[in-house]
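pinging the channel bc i need a second pair of eyes. not urgent but kinda urgent?? the chain im working w is below, pasted from the shared doc
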Amino acid sequence: MTAVVPAPVPEAAAHEVPVPGVAAHEAAAHGLPVHELAVYDGSGVSGGLYSRVVGWADAAPHWLDRLVELWSLLGLGLFALLMLAAWWRARDGGPVVMARVLASAPVVLIAYVVNSGFKGLVEEVRPCAQLRVRDTLESCPGPGDWSFPSNHTVIAFAAAAALLLVDRRIGAVAAVAAVLMGASRVWVGVHYPHDVLVGAVVGVLVAVPLVLAAGRAGPLVAHARTGPLRPLLGAGAAAAVAGPGRPVGVRRD
């Protein structure tokens, strides 16, 4: 499944057009100036570790591969469910907590948009295409679907960071799920490890300041709780927030 073979570039073709995914040393070997490269080759960063991980996937039991594949495909839905659970619990919490919960989904969307722009700037070829991996658990995305950083990982870690700031128990579950999501993207063969690592950093760096800033809308939530939105926002609690996202005097079960 994971046989990796070199990606030779015919010399004539190399001079006619920029060759996607050819590393600088390969470009020099074929007489192609480095500045003419159309895309970035990330195999020199963590290609060795990537090959080792997909080798593990190749040797793993079939049921484990199918489980990881399913998680990689559908696991982001869990973060939406965790946000709903955090909203439900925040109905009994302070207005700052509710304001942060309501901001969580838009913040994750912002993180995704920021990362998509980043991907377009770097234009890193997918490892399964760059390293010519013949078979991966997930079909190798086509040309133009860039690898760095991992969108799945950005979404997962942005959601986890947001949830940690509003509910520590739910956030802890989300954090574990985010790590598993990032690892699964390498296991199924569509991302380098460094795509995942940087994706996690981007998700956290975008989410934390925005969610904290959203807490300033607490007075608006408190006012809205006195009107027709009370069934949605809950009655709240008179307690303030103790620490990052833990309501005082509110059930923690």
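so The first helix runs from residue 11 to 16. and Confidence is low (pLDDT under 50) at residues 4-38, 239-245, 247-253. — does that match what u expected or am i reading it wrong
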